[in-house]
Write a structure and sequence with these properties.
alpha+beta; 6-stranded mixed β-sheet; 4 helices; Peptidase S74 domain-containing protein; signal
Length: 323
């Protein structure tokens, strides 16, 4: 019985080897096939490969290619035409015999990386849109060219001519080779920001109009002191003389001064409020004077009426005696 069992075991092994021999080829030289008896390469596997370690290879004349049956539908990781010279390594989908139609190119000699194109002119050159969920960090300029390219149609975010000195950062649309014609300039050493000007003199300098729903100005010099009892102000006569001489109110800049130096909204609002408060005091003072005049006039009217009544009585008395 044991001999019969041993015979069948040996027969099964021989049968399995024969079946494997029909699908696998391990010749002493030539091509090796696993899952195929007609390998077309040094090693051809008809099926999946599972590895538990790294794949280390020296690519000296070819690329690593995963194909669905034709070169035009291949996924390629490997060298460019001159990898031996350190030009580039390509990762991408082949578009034909020359697989330069798409994919990622890693350039060794220049250090440039191209996505969607094979002639990157910068460290990262993308022929298409970029979407990022993180921050963009850099030490140079960030430039976005219009489809036609060229400096006049370029959006710049980055350094000015002397960013290494902390002068300024520019954000705006270029107006020529010297891109100082428009945009926003953020000055680092002074903390100044310019819109439409590259020479801001304040924290925010705007060469143009500003439209806003609300502007809040903080000021500590609010003129409540005008209502203090010891506050001195010009008399109306003195005020009239000043206006006739200077053609503007005291403490208010002239038209020429505003045109030359501009004006501070906070300071000007404070000065205008001071004039309104002083005007209010002038009105209160004049109202008191007017009220006093009304009282005096009423007294005069009452005295006149009393005198008139006395005169009429006296006249009637004289008329009665004359009869």
């Amino acid at each position: 019985m044991n001999k019969i069992i041993s015979f069948f075991l040996v027969f099964d092994c021989l049968l399995s080897l024969k079946v494997m021999a029909q699908t696998n080829v391990f010749p002493p030289d030539g091509n090796t096939g696993i899952g195929t008896t007609v390998p077309g390469e040094k090693l051809e596997v008809n099926g999946n490969i599972k590895l538990s370690g790294d794949v280390v290879s020296r690519i000296d004349g070819s690329a690593f290619r995963v194909t669905t049956g034709s070169w035009g539908s291949s996924w390629i990781i490997g060298k460019g035409y001159d990898l031996s010279q350190g030009d580039y390594t390509r990762i991408g989908v082949a578009g034909g015999p020359d697989y330069s139609a798409s994919g990622i190119w890693l350039y060794g000699s220049s250090g440039n990386v191209g996505i969607g194109m094979n002639t990157p002119s910068a460290r990262l050159h993308v022929n298409g849109s970029i979407k990022s969920a993180g921050d963009f960090t850099g030490t140079g300029s960030f430039r976005v060219d219009a489809p036609g390219g060229g400096w006049p149609s370029t959006l710049l975010i980055g350094k000015g001519y002397d960013l290494s000195k902390g002068d300024f950062t520019k954000i705006g649309v270029t107006g020529g080779i010297d891109y100082s014609a428009s945009g926003i300039w953020m000055y680092g050493t002074t903390g100044f920001v310019g819109i439409g000007t590259d020479s801001p003199r304040e924290k925010l300098s705007v060469n143009g109009s500003i439209r806003a729903r609300e502007i809040k100005v903080e000021s500590v010099n609010w003129p409540d002191y005008v209502f203090e009892p010891d506050h001195a102000r010009l008399s109306l006569t003195e005020l009239a003389e000043y206006i006739n001489t200077n053609r503007h109110l005291p403490e208010i800049p002239s038209a020429g001064e505003v045109e030359r130096d501009g004006l501070s909204l906070g300071d000007m609002n404070s000065r205008l409020l001071k004039k309104i408060e002083e005007l209010t005091l002038y009105l209160i003072e004049k109202d008191k004077e007017l009220s006093g005049l009304k009282v005096a006039l009423k007294q005069k009217d009452e005295e006149t009426e009393s005198w008139k009544a006395s005169v009429e009585i006296r006249l009637r008395e004289l008329a009665s005696k004359a009869q």
